[in-house]
Amino acid sequence: MKNYKIALIKGDGIGPEIIDEAVKVLDAVCVGEAFSFSYEEYLMGGIAYDVTGDPLPQATINGAKNSDAILFGAIGGEKWDQLPREKRPESGLLRFRKELGVFANLRPAKVYDELVNASTLKPEIVQGVDIMVVRELIGGIYFGEPKGREGNKAFNTMVYTVPEIERIAHKAFQIAMQRTKKLCSVDKANVLDVSQLWRETVIRIAKEYPEVELSHMYVDNAAMQLIRNPRQFDVILTGNIFGDILSDEASMLSGSIGLLPSASTGLKHGLYEPIHGSAPDIAGQGIANPIATIASAAMMLRYELGETRAADRIEAAIAKVLREGYRTGDIGAYDAKEICSTSEMGTIIANNVAAIR
Ligand code: IPM
Ligand code: MG
Q1: How does residue 202 score in pLDDT terms, banded at 50, 70 and 90?
Q2: C-beta separation of 72 from 23 below 8 A
Q3: From the CB of 90, is ligand 1 less than 6 Å away?
Q4: Rounded distance from Cα 301 to ligand 2 centre (Å)
């Protein structure tokens, strides 16, 4: 019997509530499988600042690096918005990603058939959408030097090196090979030098994947095409800030940002988290949608632990609750049979997981 050590980072706002539901589902999925989980909790974000004075304590970095995988809730909130930048919860998260070396952020945006009416776009536009955004996560303008403030000016720098582009491009091509072999690289090569280098490099790497159909799009056009005709996309490869923006946009195709998981992977470590934030406005009310976090746990099983069957079971269980009309409030207006709380939703999915073999 294998035992996987999972680092749990609940964070702020709705973080603790949604992580608890993911744990419920993980505990249900290992029954009858040849593995079990042990969990260790670590502090990060605003709560870590409150307790230790640092949004990313060293104990969290060490604990995360010593685990088999990391499941992360959400961080941040108004309470910490006035802190100097390096003390803010977001800085902790960025440092954490960098420390772990998780350069590839996979953000699937899939529209569940049961929820085609939940999108703000017309059902005939979003039906069948299944996109994977591959976002470079530890470079680009988020990390580039120089950055800072001087007198009446402030500046950040968008930097990518060839090796950084090569490794994320390889990752995206590999994913494309497992999907429909279609990849669209998004940049701003008509304006930015860094994007020109990005495009040249992606074109060169593409020669190693002759089966993949590669296209290129400027980011402004991509933002437009995503809502004009989202089904034209399969894998989208892009840099850090463009990926941040486009993945939020893509999430709305699915109806709620509360549905979408993500995986951040590198050579050694994997960080799995919902793409939404800590939603302080609804924290503690038991109404948050835990599906994005539960789906992130499924991605953890698939991509980090290689437990494909267990991942399939969780994903099938999520589809089943939606088919049966169980909804949290965020998607409650659409074809709902029953509105559930965060923990009811977690329990129903866990029960389904136990029933699916
Ligand atoms: C995300 C978030 C983060 C980012 C913030 C919280 C630093 O928006 O994961 O998309 O910009 O990467
Ligand atoms: Mg974002």
Answers
A1: very high
A2: no
A3: yes
A4: 23
Long-range own/partner contacts, residues 48-53 (CB < 8 A, 24 or more apart): 48/89, 48/92, 49/80, 49/83, 49/87, 49/89, 49/92, 53/87
The domains spanning 1-108+257-357 and 120-254 adopt the same CATH topology? yes
Mean pLDDT of 334-353: 94
CATH architecture of 1-108+257-357: 3-Layer(aba) Sandwich (3.40)
Q: Are strands 338-339 and 326-327 parallel, antiparallel or unpaired?
A: parallel
Residue 99 corresponds to which amino acid? E
Q: Which of 75, 85, 90 to probe ligand 1 with, by most ligand atoms within 8 A of CB?
A: 90
Q: What angle do CA 269, 274, 276 make, to 5 degrees?
A: 135
Q: What is the pTM of this model?
A: 0.94
Any atom of ligand 1 within 6 Å of the Cβ of 93? yes
Q: Give tens-digit pLDDT for 223-254.
A: 999 999 999 999 999 999 999 999 999 998 99
pLDDT in tens, 297-321: 999 999 999 999 999 999 999 999 9
Of the listed ligands, the closest to the CA of 98 is 1
Output the CATH code of domain 120-254: 3.40.718.10
Q: So which residues are the catalytic ones? A: 142, 188, 220, 244, 248
Looking at residue 357, its pLDDT comes to 79
Give the atom of ligand 1 at the shortest distance from the alpha carbon of 273: 9
Domain boundaries, the chain: 1-108+257-357, 120-254
Distance 104 CA to ligand 2 centre (A): 14
